[in-house]
Design a protein that fits this description.
mainly alpha; globular; 65% helix; 391 residues
C-alpha cells in the first residue's frame, strides 16, 4: 500500500510537472517531481529492500562513472565560483537519484501493472490539460521574466515548453500503440486508440518539429519489428500531411520556419567551441549555463534565468562540452550496453523499448531531451515495465 501511494504521488507530480517548480535563483530549482522521486527511492529501499550492489545491472556502471567524471570537471574548473559549482553539482545529484530509482524499478517492481495503468492515465490527463491550456492560456508571455519563452498559440501543457511537450506526446503515442496492440478487450482497445489519437493531435498543436521527428522515428522502429510496410508507409504520409495542415501563418506555427533553425545552429556552434576549449574532461556537469557566460555567448540578467541557456540544443554536444571525450565515451558505452540488453527481449517488448529509446535519441539531436528529467523518467519507466532481462 505504501509503494502504491508513493507511485501515485510520483505520477501526480509528473502531471503537474513544471507548473509548481520553485526557482531559487542561480540555477537552483525545487521541483515536486524530484521530491517525489526521492520519496519513492526511500520507500522502495525500505519496503522492497532493493538497491543492493549485486542487483545493479552492469549496463548502469558507465553512468556512475559518467557522473563522477562530470563532478571532477566541476571541482577542477578554475573559473566557477563555489555557488556555481554547488548549483551545477545539484543536477548531478538529481540525475543520480533518477538512476537509483531506475535500478529499483528494474530489479524489483511488484506493482508493474499498476505502473503501466498510471502511465496511461497520466498521459491522458496531460493531453487533456494540454487542450485546456491551448484554448484558454495560449501563451506564456506573462512568465517571460522567469525565463520562459512566450510560445504564442502553441500547446505546451504542464511542460510550459512546446518542444518538451511535443517530445512527450510522441513517446506517449508509442506507449498507446503498444497498449492497443497488446489488448484483446474491444472497449479497452477503443480507449487506447482514442487517447492515442488525441495525443497525436496534441503533438501537432505543439508545432514541434522535434516531436514530429521523434514520432516518425518511433513508428518506423516499432512497426519494423512487425514488418507492416504498407501500414508504415500510410502512417508516415498521414503524419507529414497533417503536420502541414496544422501549420499557421505565425513564425512559431510554420513547419518551415527558419528562425529556430538559425538559433539551433548557433547553439551547436557554441557547444562545439566550449568542447574544443575543454576536450578531455569538459567544463563539469552541469555548468553549461556558466560556460556560455564565461565564453561570452550569453550575457545580461536573463542569462541566469533563461531555461534555454542551461544546455545545448544537441544532447550529444552537451555531453561533450560538459564531460569531454571521456564522458562521451562512457555515455555511448551505456547506450551500447542497454541496446544489447533490449535486443534479447520478446518482440512486443523489444518494439516498445527500442522505439522509445530510438525516438529519444533522434529527438536529442535537435533538443536536449536526454537530460530533461521528466522524459528521462518516462524512458526509465518504459524500460522497467517491459522487464529488461539481460544486464
Amino acid at each position: 500500500m505504501m509503494m502504491k501511494f508513493a507511485l501515485f504521488i510520483l505520477f501526480s507530480s509528473f502531471v503537474l510537472n513544471q507548473t509548481l517548480r520553485i526557482d531559487l535563483g542561480n540555477g537552483i530549482v525545487i521541483n515536486p517531481l524530484d521530491l517525489s522521486v526521492l520519496m519513492l527511492v526511500i520507500v522502495n529501499f525500505t519496503v522492497n529492500k532493493s538497491l543492493r550492489i549485486k542487483n545493479i545491472p552492469t549496463f548502469i556502471y558507465p553512468l556512475f562513472i559518467f557522473i563522477a567524471i562530470g563532478s571532477i570537471g566541476l571541482i577542477i574548473n578554475p573559473w566557477l565560483d563555489p555557488l556555481q559549482k554547488i548549483a551545477s553539482f545539484l543536477y548531478a545529484l538529481r540525475l543520480l537519484l533518477y538512476i537509483l530509482l531506475f535500478i529499483q524499478l528494474y530489479t524489483k517492481m511488484r506493482e508493474r501493472d499498476f505502473v503501466k495503468d498510471l502511465m496511461f492515465f497520466t498521459g491522458g490527463v496531460i493531453t487533456f490539460l494540454g487542450f485546456f491550456q491551448y484554448f484558454f492560456y495560449p501563451n506564456l508571455r506573462n512568465l517571460y521574466y522567469l525565463g520562459w519563452d512566450d510560445h504564442l498559440y502553441r500547446l505546451f501543457s504542464t511542460f510550459l515548453d512546446p518542444n518538451f511537450a511535443g517530445a512527450y506526446f510522441a513517446l506517449f503515442c508509442l506507449y498507446c500503440l503498444w497498449r492497443y496492440l497488446g489488448e484483446n478487450i474491444i472497449l479497452k482497445k477503443i480507449m487506447y486508440a482514442s487517447v492515442g489519437l488525441s495525443s497525436v493531435i496534441a503533438l501537432f498543436l505543439t508545432y514541434s518539429r522535434t516531436g514530429m521527428i521523434m514520432l516518425i522515428v518511433g513508428i518506423v522502429v516499432y512497426l519494423s519489428f512487425y514488418k507492416k510496410l504498407k501500414i508504415l508507409f500510410f502512417a508516415l504520409i498521414s503524419l507529414i500531411v497533417l503536420f502541414f495542415i496544422f501549420a499557421g501563418d505565425l513564425e512559431g506555427l510554420n513547419p518551415l520556419r527558419s528562425a529556430s533553425v538559425i538559433a539551433r545552429l548557433d547553439s551547436l556552434q557554441n557547444a562545439f567551441i566550449i568542447f574544443l576549449y575543454n576536450p578531455v574532461i569538459g567544463i563539469g556537469f552541469n555548468a553549461y549555463r556558466y560556460a556560455q557566460i564565461y565564453y561570452g555567448f550569453r550575457g545580461g540578467d536573463l542569462s541566469l534565468t533563461s531555461h534555454a541557456d542551461a544546455g545545448s540544443d544537441n544532447s550529444y554536444l552537451f555531453v561533450a562540452a560538459t564531460t569531454g571525450v571521456i564522458g562521451l565515451f562512457l555515455f555511448f558505452s551505456f547506450l551500447k550496453r542497454i541496446i544489447e540488453s533490449l535486443l534479447d527481449l520478446p518482440r512486443e517488448l523489444k518494439a516498445i523499448s527500442l522505439s522509445t529509446l530510438a525516438s529519444i535519441l533522434a529527438g536529442s539531436i535537435f533538443t536536449n531531451i536526454l537530460f530533461y528529467t521528466p522524459l528521462l523518467l518516462w524512458l526509465f519507466l518504459v524500460l522497467s515495465v517491459t522487464r529488461l532481462k539481460k544486464s
